[in-house]
Design goal:
The protein has 124 residues and is mostly helical. It has a domain of 82 residues. Helices cover 63% and strands 6% of the residues. It is built from 4 helices and 2 strands; from the N terminus they run αααββα. Strands 1-2 form a two-stranded antiparallel sheet. The model has no long low-confidence stretch (mean pLDDT 81).
């Protein structure tokens, strides 16, 4: 082997001109990040907050309206059921207190018994 083959070959490169590096001030260093439009972000945030508040109030109003209608419907059903129970008790026979021997009878029958008792008492 010859000495020429062991030496690395040098490649000639064209010389480039490098501009001197300028130091940037801290304020200009982040200039590209200062392009955020904060007033637009504030307006969008404020409008979004108003819309969310309006949606929440609307949903709450719809819920309370539906709840009020449901409560009114349940009250009507409860009154109707209560009247049905009262009417069936007034029109039927049953025990009030079996230990004392107290019973309940239909109102019509009770009125007839009272009239009959009054006639018997008046005839005596």
């Amino acid at each position: 082997m010859s000495v020429a083959t062991l030496e690395p070959k040098t490649i000639s490169r064209p010389k480039t001109i490098v501009a001197p590096v300028q130091k940037k001030s801290p304020s200009s260093q982040f200039e590209r990040y200062d392009t955020i439009n904060t007033s637009r972000i504030a307006v969008i945030g404020f409008v979004s907050a108003i819309l969310v508040f309006g949606a929440v109030v609307s949903a709450q109003a719809a819920f309370f309206a539906a709840d009020h209608e449901e409560a009114a419907r349940k009250a009507e059903v409860a009154v109707a059921d209560g009247l049905t129970d009262q009417q069936s008790r007034l029109a039927g026979y049953g025990w009030v207190n079996p230990a004392e021997g107290t019973v309940h009878i239909p109102v019509d029958s009770a009125m007839k018994l009272v009239v009959r008792d009054q006639k018997v008492a008046a005839a005596k």
